[in-house]
Amino acid sequence: MSIGKIYLLISAFVYGIMPLFARGVYAGGSNAVTLIVLRSFLALPLLYAIIHIKKISLKLNKNDLLKILALSVPGNGAAMLSLYMSYKYISVGTATVIHYIYPIIVFAACVIFFGERLTAAKIVSLVLVSVGILMFMDSSEEPDMYGIVTAFMSGVFYAFYVIFMDKSGIDNMNYLKLTFYVSLFSGISVLIFSLFTHTLDVTITAQGWILSVIISFLSTLAAIPLFQLGVKKEGASSAAVISTFEPITSIVTGAVFLNEKITVTGVIGCVMIFFGIAVIEMKKNE
Question: Which of 46, 95, 197, 283 could form a disulfide linkage to 86, CB 3.0–4.6 angstroms apart?
Answer without folding.
Answer: 95
